[in-house]
Every structure is written in structure tokens, then in C-alpha cells.
Amino acid sequence: MKNKLSINVLFAVLSVGVMTFGGVTVETSMNITFPTLMSEFNVGLGTVQWITTLYLLVLSTIIPLSRFLKNKFKTYNLFLFSNVIFVIGLILNAFSPNFFILLLGRFVQGIGTGIALPLMFNIILDNVPKSKLGFMMGVGSLITASASAIGPAFGGLVVNSLGWRYIFILLIPVLLISLLLGSFSIPKTFQNELHDVKFDYGSFVLIILMFAGLIIGISNVSENSLLSYQVLIPIIIGVLALIIFTKMQNKSKNPILKVDILKNVSYAKYTVAFFINQLIILGLAFIVPNYIQIINKSSSSLAGLILLPGAIMGAIMSPISGSLLDRMGAKKPILTGIAMVILSLLVLFTLSSNISDTIFLVAYIIVMIGIGMSYGNLMTQGLSYLSSELTSDGNAILTTVQQFAGAIGTAIISTIITSINSSYSGGNATVGFKFALLFLLILGFIQFLAIISTKINKK
Question: So where does this one cross the membrane (predicted)?
């Protein structure tokens, strides 16, 4: 592989990245619309949450298929299909006459983003020279991270000024720009070798059962007791499907996903660390605005604005930290980033009974700089422990883990806060937040230990 980064590769990454940007932006901006949608379509909170839950469920079931799709279809055909179907989903949502059509549009968008997200990183892994790999993986992380940062502010602004339907309408030209960029760059760059592989329908059904069971079960914890049938039955179904799926993949000559790569201890540790990173991001994104509004009695607009500088700084740090990995290796930027996160969480935990808006602003900026230092580099370094023919499987697992964390992260943190507050007789609403911050802090230490105990791969 040449040491120079091709302009066509760069445009190809940007074209798929723009599509991914649109998917993540819609995902994070839709939470702002829940009260409006509940009123317009006359549905409850439990129903309207399916706007996000269904989308994340579809993402989680499509992403594990990325290895099969890569072997079965040309890169450009995958790009074209995912782009067109995403636009169809946007149109369905923009003009949906009822809640069912709105859900259908989100389902269709989930398919498009589920193909695009691993496709972007596969393009980087297969076509970027090793000397630029950290930087470009950082760029890929920047695209998704910046969308997460912009989403809530974008959603709030559009809903208040134009109406919720314009969240989808305004993204249609963005997807058309993506289509234009990809149409001239991808065919010139990628002629991937295709294989005559058969689709394993049984394994796909197990993937659906696995993620549906786990996501629905864990999401139900916030409104039901841990031992209720609404929680236990879906989780049991999900766990059983996971066990059967793993055994089937290990025995199959041509598995949908080579899950046995998790026997590689170093890769497995980085996968756990990557999962924790995502949980911390989502956990704080829930804790900070809710504490600011519920405890500090500040406005929702201020709560959103306090998150924005940190999210932007974290996004900017992603390619910078990737360049640091290219120059000095992975361990220093990753551990530095995790240490920044731990120290900030420790400060917030210590002050949890009285955290001012200013302290939240500063602490969240430091946390997100730390996340930016570690996020993309965890993915890059984790994949370096795998052989080149296994990187697409490794990428699929990491991207699936990321979306699974996204699907359950908010539910876990909200459950901790509400459960502790309801059982605490002192009437102090900050206690639940204190335990939620402690949970994230413990996760941070686990992440640090996972990385420091792993030898850095020199290949």
C-alpha cells in the first residue's frame, strides 16, 4: 500500500461519512421532539420512545452483517443502496401522516445507517496507508462525534423555529451531496473481490432476537422492577439467542460474524474499553442536562448549550489524537484521555451534592477532550491485534458494541437515578445522580485497567 493518501479515498470516506453524519444527527436530535410528537400523534412516552429504540435496534441487527455484505456486494452498490434507502426514510418521516409511518421511516433509515457506519471504517481500514491510519480513523470518529454534538442543538433549533418535520427535510440535500461525492470517488477507488457466500437466515433471526431481547429488556428496567416479566423474559430470550448464535458461528465454515476473534484477549480488552467509552459519553449526556434542569433549575436551552462546547472539543480532538497515535503509538494518548475522564468524573462525584452550571461546563469539556483522545484510538489499536482478513469482523463487532451501548446506556443511568431517589428517604434528589456518577467512575477505572494491562501491538 502506498504511503500517500489518495484524494479519491478521502472523498469516498467523506461521502459515506456525510451519510453516517446524517444518521447520527437524526438519532440524537429526535429526543428533543418527543413532547411535540406525543401531542401531535396522541401517544404516550413509552410509545414515542420507539422512535429511537426501533432505530437503534435496526442498526444493531444490520451492522453484524457488514462482513457478509462486503463479500457479497461491491462497495459502490452498498453505498448507493444505503444512501437511497436513507433518503426514502427521510421522505417518509418528513411527510408522515401518522405515527406508524413515522416508525416505518425510522426503520428504513436504520437500514441505511446500519450499512453505512461499518462501510466507512472498512473503507479506511482497507485503503488508508498505515502511516495515516490513526489520523483517518480519527476523522471517522470526528464525523460521528460531531453529529452527536450537533444533534440536540440542531433538533431544538429546528423544532422551535420550523417544526419537527424539517429535521428530516433539511437532511435530504445533505444526503444528495453525499451521493454526488460517492458517485465519482468510490467507483474509481474500490474494486473489492466478491465471494459467492450464502446468507444464513437462521443466524440473522438469532441476531434479531438477541438485540431485541436485550435492548427491550434493559429499556424496560426504567419503568418496571428488575424481576418483572417485562424485563426478565426479553433478557432471557436475548441471552439464549446470544449463546446459540455464538455456538452456530463457531461451528460454521462460513459464519456471518467470526465471534471467536474475541478469544484474542488483547482485542477483547479493547472492545470492553470501547464499550465503556460509549457508556460514559451517553451517561454524562443524560446526567448533565437533567441535573442542570432538575437540581439547578436552569433552562433546557442552557442545559443543551453547556453540552455543546465539550462535544465540539471532543470531536476536534479525534483526528488530532489519531495523528498522535501515528507518531508515538497508542498507549500514551489513550491512557492520557482515560485519565482526564476519570479525574473529571472524580471531581463531579465529590461535588455531586452541589455542582454549579460552570463546573459542569468545565468538567464536561475536559471529559470530552479525554474521550476524543481515546475514542478512535481504542478502535484503531484494538483492530491492530487482528490479521487483515479479520479486520472487517473486528470492525463489525466494535461498531455493533457502540450501537448496543447507545441503545442501553441512557436506560441504565436513568434507572440508577430513579431507583436510588425513590428508595432514599431523605428527599435529596442529588443522591441518584451521585450514584450514577459513581457508576461511571468505576467504569472509567475498569477501562484504565483493561488498557494498562494490555501490551501494545508493535506490528
Answer: 7-26, 46-66, 78-95, 101-121, 133-154, 166-187, 199-221, 227-246, 267-288, 300-322, 334-352, 358-376, 397-420, 432-452
Q: Going by C-beta distance under 8 Å and a sequence separation of 6 or more, which residues neighbour residue 30?
A: 51, 52, 55, 155, 167
According to DSSP, residue 297 is labeled -
Count of residues making up the chain: 459
The span from the CA of 300 to the CA of 289, in Å, is: 7
- DSSP letters of 366-431? HHHHHHHHHHHHHHHHHHTTS-GGGHHHHHHHHHHHHHHHHHHHHHHHHHHHHHHHHH-TT--THH
pLDDT of residue 191: 62
For 242-268, the pLDDT digits (tens) are: 999 888 888 877 788 888 888 899 999
| Whole-number pLDDT of residue 457 | 60
- Fill in the DSSP letter of residue 354: S
Q: Average pLDDT, whole number, for the chain? A: 83
Longest dimension (CA), the chain: 66
With 0-12 / 13-18 / 19 or more C-beta atoms within 10 angstroms meaning exposed / middle / buried, residue 97 is exposed
* Listed residue (21, 4, 220, 216) closest to 113, CA to CA: 21
Which ranges of 252-298 would DSSP assign to H, the alpha helix?
A: 265-294
53 close to 407: Cβ distance less than 8 angstroms: yes
User: Any idea which residue has 503509538 for its cell?
Assistant: 329
- With beta carbons less than 8 A apart as the criterion, state whether 394 and 201 touch: no
